[in-house]
Request: fold
Amino acid sequence: MNRFTKAVLSGLVLGGILHIIIILLIPHHASRDAWSQVGKLGPTDAFHPVPQSIAGAAGLAEQDPFLIQAVCRFSLANAAREIKASISAPFWSVGLFTPLGIAVFSANDSASDQSELRLMVITPLQLAGIQENQDADFSDALMVETSEQDLFVVLRAFASSTREAERLTKELGEASCTAYQPELIDDGRIR
Reply:
């Protein structure tokens, strides 16, 4: 065999070994994505504080000691979602992500009225059904229309002290991430 043939064969063998190693490592890295990490925090349709150990996964910011985070994982398969939170912080933000950590929507406290957040996450088909009801009132809600079924939402709030961080952790934990259930307002309109 000449040198060229040996070099080609060596390259093919090393390439094959490298591919086998990469394929064997896929399951290890696949379980470290944000969707899997968020699922370990607790049941779906509820907000959970984000611990330091998973901060930095796709969609989750690196943990900043002054940034309190909570996350809720949900599906739009059966109903639209209504995210409500009352956050009394000098700065807060909300982000909506796909299981791969791709941002679908992001906003901060300047997009909502004062410290109250009402975010409606809805598929095009669900939106068409709700729009048929002329009395539906979404004037105080941020509307996000997406074709994605599985999503997670991240709430972040700035805390300037340890005491404020404890209070904000409680506030973010009390946020709701529930299936949209229309409710009647006093004048007969649906909210």
About this structure: The longest strand covers residues 67-75. Confidence is low (pLDDT under 50) at residues 187-191. The two ends are 80 Å apart (CA to CA). The CA atoms of residues 12 and 18 lie 10 Å apart.
